[in-house]
Write a structure and sequence with these properties.
single chain, about 400 residues, alpha+beta, 5-stranded mixed β-sheet, two-stranded antiparallel sheet, 10 helices, 7 strands
Amino acid sequence: MKSTREALPARGETPSPDAGAARESSIGQWLAGFLIWTLIGLSFAAQFYLFSLKGGHPVPWSEAIESSLADWYVWAVLSLPVLWLARRFPLEQPEWRGHLALHFCGSAICALLYVFLRGWLGLAQSALAGTTAIFSDVFQRLVAKTFFFNVIVYWVIVCFSHAFDYYRQFRERAVEAAELEKNLTQARLTTLQMQLNPHFLFNTLHAISALMHIDVDAADRMIARLSELLRRTLESDNVHEVPLREEIDFLKRYMEIEQTRFGSRLKIELHTQPDTLDAMVPNLLLQPLVENAIQHGIEPFAKPGTVTISSRLANGELTLEVSDNGADLAPDWKPGVGLSNTRARLQQLYRTKSRLDVTSRPGGGVTVIASFPFRTMEVRLDPLQWNAQDRSHR
């Protein structure tokens, strides 16, 4: 058990931000409560003043305010134990019957306690005004006029407490659900990205192994490029989005490896619009698409082939296109690891606002088109935002 000296902050030590925030929140709650009861008192004062004016026995405005504020400031004090009872003994299963009986007793006691406090406050007001009053007369008059109304006020406070607690619990559950959904989305994205890295690595190592028997210098260059790619991949392992210019830079390093491997058989064309280079794109989005185009559109054929990468911006949507001039899609074609993971990552990040289409080119070959909302680095991505928008359109 810590001593008192250990529990207290050291001299000159700055209080924790959490403690300061809690203190400010508590002060704000007290001020809000005072304001609420003051507004209630003023509203009843206005009603009292207007009714007296309409009944032909006008009451001065100052007297109406003084009387009404005295009534409701007493309730402001009594509301503290009432709120404690409401939270300590909620009207919920399985003990709601016992708690209901307790609150019935509490409402009667609180109504009488109000009469007692308001009676003494009335005597003090009378003394200040230079008049005399007998407490028993004031007490009896207040019991007859306000007892049942006081019981109603008690139950209004209890209902308000329950409604506020239900709302707070609803908000807490909503925040917890949002955090769980966000964490699940991040976990899924990380898993998909981790699946891409070894897939790319094994294919590259296989290419280096085959090249070692043909051109050692070329294989050595590929190893150097591979080390650069691995370093870049590890540095951005936990980053789900990068600017397109960084993605293109990474892709160029990867294409150097493939150019070394295929030589003149492989031609790469880049057509990126300047206004798209600052767009945020999923990390390692293009590499598996280009790898897929080379593996299925270039490698099986002896003739030279071309892989074209392009980007364009239209109607707030970024479109990336990777195409090759190899064979068309087979009738029984199914997406592999690269395409499947890319589609899954787009769905996790952008939900229904993204698409990945794979089609055959009219002149031969395959085109992969990825489209998703255009954003720059200044606009941070929150996958939950897309989720909320999806739910609003369902």
